[in-house]
Design goal:
The chain is mainly β. Helix content is 9%, strand content 23%. The longest helix has 11 residues. The radius of gyration is 15 Å and the shape is elongated.
């Protein structure tokens, strides 16, 4: 994660940076500290996460509107039984370089037969 954060910081000079992906760690994991801006608890990076609420790294969950769960499922294989597509934790992220974007928002959607729910975001850039 530190490598991704460092590379993002390098690209930030004169650019708006968006980094998204499956990081396979929960929002409170210290491995994400280099990504999160200091506005987020423990953060030391330059990014704000699109799917957050007031810079919170906790709370949320399925259908919450923020820090929504994006990975895992209740039964394996995912999506073959009613309601087992529901993810069990947040592991996918969309990070936006701070100061560059305003009005950003993220949301998890529904994915049949997948152990990840697609995460999307929209933002205005300055």
């Amino acid at each position: 994660m530190a490598f991704v954060a460092a590379r993002g910081r390098e690209m930030w000079s004169g650019n708006h940076v968006l980094i998204g992906g499956d990081f396979n760690v929960e929002p409170t994991d210290s491995k994400l500290n280099p990504m999160y801006s200091p506005e987020h608890s423990g953060g030391s990076g330059i990014f704000n996460e699109a799917d957050t609420n007031g810079f919170s790294r906790t709370g949320g969950g399925v259908g919450s509107g923020y820090n929504e769960y994006t990975g895992g499922c209740i039964h394996w294989p995912c999506g073959y039984r009613a309601n087992d597509w529901k993810p069990t934790g947040k592991i996918d992220y969309i990070f936006l370089s701070r100061y560059d974007f305003t009005g950003y928002y993220g949301d998890a959607t529904y994915a049949l037969r997948s152990d990840h729910t697609p995460l999307w975001a929209w933002a205005n850039y300055e």
